[in-house]
Fold:
Amino acid sequence: MHNFRVKVYYEDTDLGGIVYYANYLKFIERARSEAVAECGIDQLRLQADHDLVFVVRRVTADFLQSAKFGEVLDISTHITEMSGARIAMKQVVTIENKQIFAADVTLAVMSGQGRPARLPAEIRQKLQHLVM
Structure:
């Protein structure tokens, strides 16, 4: 599991001072990127060396409570399932250990030509650090 922390800035909020709903997707994207990087995977190198990229295929999200300007969000990311060409992740956003948002994210592995592809075994091995 990987943990990532982000502070809510004014630009993240709507007129009511709460986090605009689409920004949760940005926050969890940052957390996923950092999680993959901490596994030793450079996504630019993955593309350059293997012509592979991760793309979001599906997101299901539960908005449980609103975050507000100035609050600190903790985002946990872990892999729930992984195959040769697909990765399922669970991401949970909390404030002071209270869950406010959760998402199930399915990533597909694609070639630079936009076709499904398989992850090399060494990349799958590195991602094992995120499996729970």
Observations:
- The two ends are 7 Å apart (CA to CA).
- Strands lie at 2-7, 52-63, 72-82, 86-95, 98-111.
- The mean pLDDT is 96.
